[in-house]
Protein backbone atom coordinates (compact mmCIF):
# COMPACT_ATOMS: atom_id res chain seq x y z
CA UNK A 1 0.00 0.00 0.00
CA UNK A 2 2.86 2.35 0.72
CA UNK A 3 4.37 1.87 -2.75
CA UNK A 4 0.95 2.42 -4.31
CA UNK A 5 0.53 5.74 -2.53
CA UNK A 6 4.02 6.80 -3.47
CA UNK A 7 3.03 6.73 -7.13
CA UNK A 8 0.77 9.71 -6.54
CA UNK A 9 3.25 11.72 -4.46
CA UNK A 10 4.76 14.89 -5.87
CA UNK A 11 8.55 14.83 -5.93
CA UNK A 12 10.52 18.02 -5.31
CA UNK A 13 10.89 19.94 -8.54
CA UNK A 14 14.67 19.90 -8.23
CA UNK A 15 14.58 16.08 -8.33
CA UNK A 16 11.99 15.64 -11.07
CA UNK A 17 13.31 18.37 -13.36
CA UNK A 18 15.48 16.03 -15.44
CA UNK A 19 12.59 13.59 -16.05
CA UNK A 20 10.20 16.42 -16.95
CA UNK A 21 12.71 17.90 -19.41
CA UNK A 22 13.23 14.44 -20.89
CA UNK A 23 9.50 14.11 -21.58
CA UNK A 24 9.47 17.45 -23.39
CA UNK A 25 12.12 16.04 -25.74
CA UNK A 26 9.71 13.29 -26.91
CA UNK A 27 7.56 13.81 -30.06
CA UNK A 28 4.47 14.64 -27.99
CA UNK A 29 6.39 16.95 -25.68
CA UNK A 30 8.07 18.80 -28.55
CA UNK A 31 4.77 19.28 -30.35
CA UNK A 32 3.10 20.59 -27.22
CA UNK A 33 6.05 22.89 -26.51
CA UNK A 34 5.84 24.25 -30.06
CA UNK A 35 2.22 25.33 -29.58
CA UNK A 36 2.92 26.78 -26.14
CA UNK A 37 5.78 28.85 -27.51
CA UNK A 38 3.57 30.09 -30.34
CA UNK A 39 0.77 31.12 -27.96
CA UNK A 40 3.20 32.83 -25.57
CA UNK A 41 4.76 34.75 -28.45
CA UNK A 42 1.34 36.19 -29.28
CA UNK A 43 0.74 37.23 -25.67
CA UNK A 44 4.21 38.65 -24.99
CA UNK A 45 4.00 40.84 -28.07
CA UNK A 46 1.82 43.34 -26.19
CA UNK A 47 3.58 43.30 -22.81
CA UNK A 48 6.31 45.83 -22.06
CA UNK A 49 8.64 46.63 -19.19
CA UNK A 50 12.24 46.46 -18.02
CA UNK A 51 12.64 42.94 -16.56
CA UNK A 52 11.30 39.59 -17.77
CA UNK A 53 11.60 36.35 -15.79
CA UNK A 54 10.66 32.77 -16.61
CA UNK A 55 10.50 29.82 -14.24
CA UNK A 56 10.59 26.47 -16.01
CA UNK A 57 11.95 22.95 -15.50
CA UNK A 58 12.91 22.84 -19.20
CA UNK A 59 16.40 24.22 -19.67
CA UNK A 60 16.42 24.62 -23.45
CA UNK A 61 13.29 26.78 -23.75
CA UNK A 62 13.60 30.56 -23.96
CA UNK A 63 10.35 32.51 -24.01
CA UNK A 64 12.17 35.79 -23.49
CA UNK A 65 13.29 35.79 -27.13
CA UNK A 66 9.69 36.56 -28.14
CA UNK A 67 9.38 39.44 -25.67
CA UNK A 68 10.16 43.08 -26.34
CA UNK A 69 11.75 43.36 -22.92
CA UNK A 70 15.53 43.55 -23.16
CA UNK A 71 16.53 42.16 -19.76
CA UNK A 72 15.36 38.52 -19.57
CA UNK A 73 16.10 36.12 -16.70
CA UNK A 74 15.59 32.36 -16.87
CA UNK A 75 15.57 30.48 -13.56
CA UNK A 76 15.90 26.74 -12.99
CA UNK A 77 15.13 24.69 -9.85
CA UNK A 78 18.28 22.55 -10.22
CA UNK A 79 21.66 22.51 -11.95
CA UNK A 80 20.70 19.63 -14.24
CA UNK A 81 20.72 20.67 -17.86
CA UNK A 82 23.08 23.61 -17.39
CA UNK A 83 25.83 21.85 -19.36
CA UNK A 84 23.58 21.73 -22.43
CA UNK A 85 24.80 24.10 -25.13
CA UNK A 86 21.19 25.06 -25.88
CA UNK A 87 20.46 25.87 -22.26
CA UNK A 88 19.07 29.35 -21.55
CA UNK A 89 19.34 29.16 -17.75
CA UNK A 90 20.72 32.26 -16.02
CA UNK A 91 20.37 31.16 -12.40
CA UNK A 92 19.36 28.34 -10.06
CA UNK A 93 17.01 28.92 -7.16
CA UNK A 94 14.28 27.42 -5.06
CA UNK A 95 11.06 28.69 -6.61
CA UNK A 96 9.52 28.95 -3.15
CA UNK A 97 12.16 31.54 -2.19
CA UNK A 98 13.24 33.64 -5.16
CA UNK A 99 16.39 35.77 -4.73
CA UNK A 100 14.75 39.03 -5.82
CA UNK A 101 13.38 42.09 -4.06
CA UNK A 102 9.71 42.97 -3.98
CA UNK A 103 8.12 44.55 -7.06
CA UNK A 104 11.02 44.29 -9.52
CA UNK A 105 9.80 42.02 -12.37
CA UNK A 106 7.45 43.32 -15.07
CA UNK A 107 6.48 39.98 -16.66
CA UNK A 108 6.76 36.57 -14.94
CA UNK A 109 6.17 33.29 -16.78
CA UNK A 110 5.47 30.10 -14.80
CA UNK A 111 5.99 27.33 -17.34
CA UNK A 112 4.77 23.96 -15.96
CA UNK A 113 5.94 24.82 -12.47
CA UNK A 114 2.82 24.84 -10.29
CA UNK A 115 1.54 21.36 -11.15
CA UNK A 116 4.94 19.79 -10.37
CA UNK A 117 5.67 21.74 -7.16
CA UNK A 118 5.21 20.41 -3.64
CA UNK A 119 3.88 23.79 -2.53
CA UNK A 120 2.29 25.54 -5.54
CA UNK A 121 0.67 28.21 -3.35
CA UNK A 122 4.07 29.39 -2.12
CA UNK A 123 5.53 29.39 -5.64
CA UNK A 124 2.68 31.54 -6.93
CA UNK A 125 2.96 33.79 -3.89
CA UNK A 126 6.67 34.33 -4.55
CA UNK A 127 5.99 35.10 -8.20
CA UNK A 128 3.36 37.64 -7.14
CA UNK A 129 5.75 39.19 -4.61
CA UNK A 130 8.48 39.96 -7.15
CA UNK A 131 6.04 41.19 -9.82
CA UNK A 132 5.51 44.94 -9.91
CA UNK A 133 2.05 46.55 -9.56
CA UNK A 134 0.36 46.53 -12.97
CA UNK A 135 2.79 43.78 -13.95
CA UNK A 136 1.82 40.42 -15.44
CA UNK A 137 2.01 36.74 -14.54
CA UNK A 138 1.56 34.12 -17.28
CA UNK A 139 0.78 30.57 -16.14
CA UNK A 140 1.34 27.61 -18.47
CA UNK A 141 0.07 24.31 -17.06
CA UNK A 142 -1.44 20.99 -18.07
CA UNK A 143 -5.19 21.10 -18.46
CA UNK A 144 -6.90 18.47 -16.25
CA UNK A 145 -10.12 18.81 -18.29
CA UNK A 146 -8.66 17.10 -21.35
CA UNK A 147 -7.98 13.60 -22.60
CA UNK A 148 -4.51 13.79 -21.11
CA UNK A 149 -5.95 14.89 -17.78
CA UNK A 150 -8.56 12.13 -17.76
CA UNK A 151 -5.90 9.45 -18.26
CA UNK A 152 -3.45 11.05 -15.82
CA UNK A 153 -4.52 9.02 -12.71
CA UNK A 154 -4.24 5.82 -14.71
CA UNK A 155 -0.78 6.78 -15.92
CA UNK A 156 0.34 7.54 -12.37
CA UNK A 157 -0.96 4.14 -11.26
CA UNK A 158 0.83 2.16 -13.96
CA UNK A 159 4.24 3.84 -13.89
CA UNK A 160 6.39 6.24 -11.93
CA UNK A 161 6.58 8.96 -14.60
CA UNK A 162 6.93 12.48 -13.25
CA UNK A 163 4.63 13.76 -15.98
CA UNK A 164 1.88 11.41 -14.79
CA UNK A 165 2.43 12.36 -11.16
CA UNK A 166 1.33 15.96 -11.35
CA UNK A 167 -1.31 18.05 -9.67
CA UNK A 168 -4.65 18.55 -11.36
CA UNK A 169 -4.90 22.34 -11.35
CA UNK A 170 -7.97 23.65 -13.15
CA UNK A 171 -8.00 27.08 -14.77
CA UNK A 172 -10.83 28.15 -12.46
CA UNK A 173 -8.76 27.21 -9.45
CA UNK A 174 -5.85 29.26 -10.77
CA UNK A 175 -8.17 32.26 -11.13
CA UNK A 176 -9.19 31.96 -7.48
CA UNK A 177 -5.58 31.85 -6.34
CA UNK A 178 -4.70 34.87 -8.47
CA UNK A 179 -7.66 36.90 -7.23
CA UNK A 180 -6.57 36.22 -3.66
CA UNK A 181 -3.18 37.75 -4.57
CA UNK A 182 -4.81 40.87 -6.09
CA UNK A 183 -4.48 39.70 -9.70
CA UNK A 184 -7.08 39.97 -12.45
CA UNK A 185 -7.26 37.22 -15.03
CA UNK A 186 -7.27 38.80 -18.49
CA UNK A 187 -7.39 35.76 -20.78
CA UNK A 188 -7.17 31.97 -20.83
CA UNK A 189 -6.31 30.09 -24.01
CA UNK A 190 -6.44 26.35 -24.62
CA UNK A 191 -3.33 24.96 -26.31
CA UNK A 192 -2.64 21.81 -28.36
CA UNK A 193 -5.89 20.05 -29.29
CA UNK A 194 -4.80 16.52 -30.12
CA UNK A 195 -4.80 13.02 -28.71
CA UNK A 196 -2.05 12.38 -26.13
CA UNK A 197 -0.35 9.73 -28.26
CA UNK A 198 3.42 9.93 -28.15
CA UNK A 199 4.09 8.93 -31.74
CA UNK A 200 5.74 11.14 -34.35
CA UNK A 201 3.83 9.68 -37.34
CA UNK A 202 0.47 10.04 -35.63
CA UNK A 203 1.16 13.65 -34.63
CA UNK A 204 2.31 14.49 -38.15
CA UNK A 205 -0.88 13.08 -39.69
CA UNK A 206 -3.32 14.77 -37.29
CA UNK A 207 -2.68 18.48 -37.72
CA UNK A 208 -5.99 19.45 -39.28
CA UNK A 209 -7.49 20.68 -36.00
CA UNK A 210 -4.28 22.54 -35.12
CA UNK A 211 -4.82 24.81 -38.14
CA UNK A 212 -8.33 25.76 -36.99
CA UNK A 213 -8.62 29.52 -36.50
CA UNK A 214 -10.51 29.49 -33.20
CA UNK A 215 -8.81 26.48 -31.63
CA UNK A 216 -7.61 28.51 -28.61
CA UNK A 217 -11.22 29.08 -27.54
CA UNK A 218 -12.14 25.40 -27.74
CA UNK A 219 -12.08 23.33 -24.52
CA UNK A 220 -10.14 20.11 -23.93
CA UNK A 221 -6.74 21.53 -24.86
CA UNK A 222 -3.83 19.56 -23.44
CA UNK A 223 -2.52 22.70 -21.70
CA UNK A 224 -3.68 26.25 -21.07
CA UNK A 225 -2.03 29.66 -21.02
CA UNK A 226 -3.44 32.17 -18.51
CA UNK A 227 -2.49 35.86 -18.44
CA UNK A 228 -3.15 37.85 -15.25
CA UNK A 229 -2.37 41.43 -14.23
CA UNK A 230 -1.40 42.60 -10.77
CA UNK A 231 -3.88 45.31 -9.84
CA UNK A 232 -2.50 46.03 -6.38
CA UNK A 233 -1.49 49.70 -6.38
CA UNK A 234 1.84 50.71 -4.93
CA UNK A 235 1.10 53.49 -2.40
CA UNK A 236 3.69 55.88 -0.98
CA UNK A 237 2.58 57.54 2.29
CA UNK A 238 2.93 61.34 2.31
CA UNK A 239 3.57 62.84 5.72
CA UNK A 240 1.87 66.22 6.37
CA UNK A 241 4.04 69.20 7.16
CA UNK A 242 2.67 70.57 10.43
CA UNK A 243 3.30 74.09 11.66
CA UNK A 244 5.89 74.53 14.35
CA UNK A 245 3.29 75.81 16.80
CA UNK A 246 1.44 73.57 19.20
CA UNK A 247 -1.56 72.00 17.50
CA UNK A 248 -3.82 72.28 20.57
CA UNK A 249 -2.35 75.53 21.90
CA UNK A 250 -3.34 79.10 21.16
CA UNK A 251 -2.17 80.53 17.86
CA UNK A 252 -1.02 84.18 17.85
CA UNK A 253 -3.17 86.56 15.78
CA UNK A 254 -1.69 89.66 14.24
CA UNK A 255 -3.19 92.87 15.61
CA UNK A 256 -4.62 95.42 13.24
CA UNK A 257 -4.96 99.15 14.02
CA UNK A 258 -8.45 100.63 13.95
CA UNK A 259 -8.71 103.62 11.69
CA UNK A 260 -11.52 106.12 11.67
CA UNK A 261 -11.91 106.01 7.91
CA UNK A 262 -12.19 102.24 7.75
CA UNK A 263 -14.88 100.79 5.58
CA UNK A 264 -18.18 99.93 7.12
CA UNK A 265 -17.76 96.18 6.70
CA UNK A 266 -14.28 96.34 8.16
CA UNK A 267 -15.03 98.55 11.16
CA UNK A 268 -14.37 97.01 14.56
CA UNK A 269 -16.26 98.55 17.46
CA UNK A 270 -15.06 98.40 21.07
CA UNK A 271 -16.99 96.51 23.70
CA UNK A 272 -19.62 98.58 25.47
CA UNK A 273 -21.62 98.03 28.57
CA UNK A 274 -25.26 97.18 28.17
CA UNK A 275 -27.51 100.20 28.68
CA UNK A 276 -30.63 99.65 30.72
CA UNK A 277 -33.74 101.08 29.17
CA UNK A 278 -36.47 102.56 31.35
CA UNK A 279 -40.07 102.10 30.28
Salient structural properties:
single chain, 279 residues, alpha/beta, seven-stranded mixed β-sheet, 18% strand
Describe the structure.
The chain has 279 residues and is α/β, with parallel strands linked by helices. It has helices at 2-6, 13-23, 27-44, 120-130, 147-150, 152-158, 171-180, 200-205, and strands at 51-55, 71-76, 91-92, 105-111, 131-142, 183-191, 223-230. The chain has a seven-stranded mixed sheet with strand order 3-2-1-4-5-7-6, with helices on both faces. Strand 4 (105-111), helix 4 and strand 5 (131-142) form a beta-alpha-beta unit. The protein is globular, with a radius of gyration of 31 Å. The relative contact order is 0.14.
Task: Give the amount of beta strand, in percent.
Answer: 15-25%
Structural class: alpha/beta
First CA to last CA: what distance? 114 Å
> Which percent bin holds the helix content?
25-40%
Poorly predicted parts: 262-269
CA-based shape: globular
Q: Characterize the main sheet.
A: 7 strands, mixed
Number of strands: 7
Quick check: average pLDDT? 79
Q: Largest beta sheet: what is the strand line-up?
A: 3-2-1-4-5-7-6
What is the alpha-carbon Rg in Å? Answer: 31 Å
What is the helix tally? 8
Order of helices and strands: HHHEEEEHEHHHEHE
